[in-house]
Amino acid sequence: MSNAEIQVIYKRPESLTDLHTTYCPGCTHGVAHRLVAEVIDEMGIREKVIGVAPVGCSVFAYNYFNMDFVEAAHGRAPAMATGIKRVLPQNTVFTYQGDGDLASIGMAEIMHAAARGENITVVFINNAIYGMTGGQMAPTTLPGMKTTSSPYGRDVELAGYPIKMAEILSVMEGSGYVVRRSLHDAKHIRQAKKAIRLAFETQERGLGFSMVELLSSCPTNWGLTPQKALEFVEERMVPVFPLGDYKVNAELETLKV
Q1: CATH assignment at residue 148
Q2: Tally of domains within the chain
Q3: For residue 55, which of 3, 1, 109, 121 has the smallest C-alpha distance?
Q4: DSSP secondary structure string, 72-133?
Q5: Terminal-residue alpha carbon distance, the chain
Q6: Residue-averaged pLDDT of the chain
Q7: Of 5, 136, 193, 218, whose CB is crowded by the most CB atoms within 10 A?
Q8: Other residues' Cβ atoms within 10 Å of the Cβ of residue 2
Q9: Are 49 and 94 a contacting pair, CB within 8 Å?
Q10: pTM check: above 0.90
């Protein structure tokens, strides 16, 4: 085959750096990173994007995204993003958060950001466990699911039920776009990318708070192979966290495909 016949059909997005990530084998953080980067490239907004990552597996995101990035204290990414967006309203600001961060220590920040209708975008990685800090039970851990802090399985009588953030934030009047997608197979990954695009479009059109919740795998802390972890997402997580659109501003309906 001559060089003239060679065509590039897939390459690293400009919005990602040329670095190997430190995520565990089979972790879908890398998939989520690529989707966000592809959307930013396709929208042509990289030069004005500012990302915010807090503590957790997302803490090293600034190494992997090729754009301006700041690090927030644990759970405080929405608060920092609020400040940045209000000072620099012409910029596109997004947070990249895990479930322990967003739905536990950062619950107040995310709730009030949505209630105020802050014009920011949130990418929420829900893998039902604290990934970076030792595999403890998270607010989204499934009933009966074993973790390092619930070795006999989550007992709902003691620890309560999983918190469903998409459902909660969708009732906030300041929310413009709130959906839940999954990263367990190619079909759902494509759907996730479309949702991320609409979340950024929500911000670009000034329609208020937007969040895409992504059901994600954590093979290491779940004690599963990467393949089995994806099956766990489909078979165990999706029934507890139903996929779907929980709130979509009417102005976005024309963009949905």
Answers
A1: 3.40.50.970
A2: 1
A3: 109
A4: --TT-HHHHHHHHHHH-TTSEEEEEEEHHIIIIITHHHHHHHHHHT-S-EEEEEE-SS-TTT
A5: 37
A6: 94
A7: 218
A8: 5
A9: yes
A10: yes
